[in-house]
Amino acid sequence: MNKVPMTVQGELKLREELNHLKTVERPRIIEDIATAREHGDLKENAEYHAAREQQGFAEGRIADIEGKLSGCQVIDVTKIPHSGKVIFGTTVDIINLDTDGEVSYKIVGDDEADLKHNKISVNSPIARALIGKEEGEVVVVKTPNGNVEYEIDRVRHV
């Protein structure tokens, strides 16, 4: 099985969610099921069925997170010597050569991608075009509206 790359922050966030599900949500749901059982007939007990549904969702999410954590390779870009080359985990400042607009993206794993916070998946078209390139290089990104040229202004290991 191929290891899926993940940043240190991404792993920490998943571990925090897993801990919350196991120590807070799971006991609360078990208590809700016990309380609902006390109300009698389970066939027509909406509270019981809702709690069981929550339990199924929580257990599924726990299994999902544990699977992701077991198959991940955590990459701490701050421990990798700076070479000016775009790699997984780096933050890249790029300039759109058509509009002179500047934007910064952090290249992260699929589960960590969040465009609102300028975190893009390593599998996104922009990241795929940037990976392996160096500061000063021009890359062409294929978009639905045509090709867009970007110049790599700076690569940061943060």
Description:
This protein has helices at 8-37, 46-70, 125-130, and strands spanning 4-7, 72-75, 91-96, 102-108, 119-121, 138-143, 146-156. The protein is α/β, with parallel strands linked by helices. Strands 5-4-3-7-6 form a 5-stranded mixed sheet. It has a two-stranded parallel sheet with strand order 1-2. Helix 1 packs antiparallel against helix 2 (46-70). The two termini are 29 Å apart.
Main β-sheet, spatial strand arrangement: 5-4-3-7-6
What percent of the residues sit in helical stretches (DSSP H or I)? 25-40%
CATH arch. level architecture of the largest domain = Roll
* Outline: elongated
State Rg.
22 Å
Relevant CATH superfamily of the largest domain: Transcription elongation factor, GreA/GreB, C-terminal domain
- How much of the sequence lies in strands comes to 25-35%
Instruction: Compute the number of helices.
Output: 3
CATH-assigned fold name of the largest domain: Chitinase A, domain 3
CATH class of the largest domain: Alpha Beta
Termini separation (Å)?
29 Å
Q: Major β-sheet, in short?
A: 5 strands, mixed
Total strands = 7
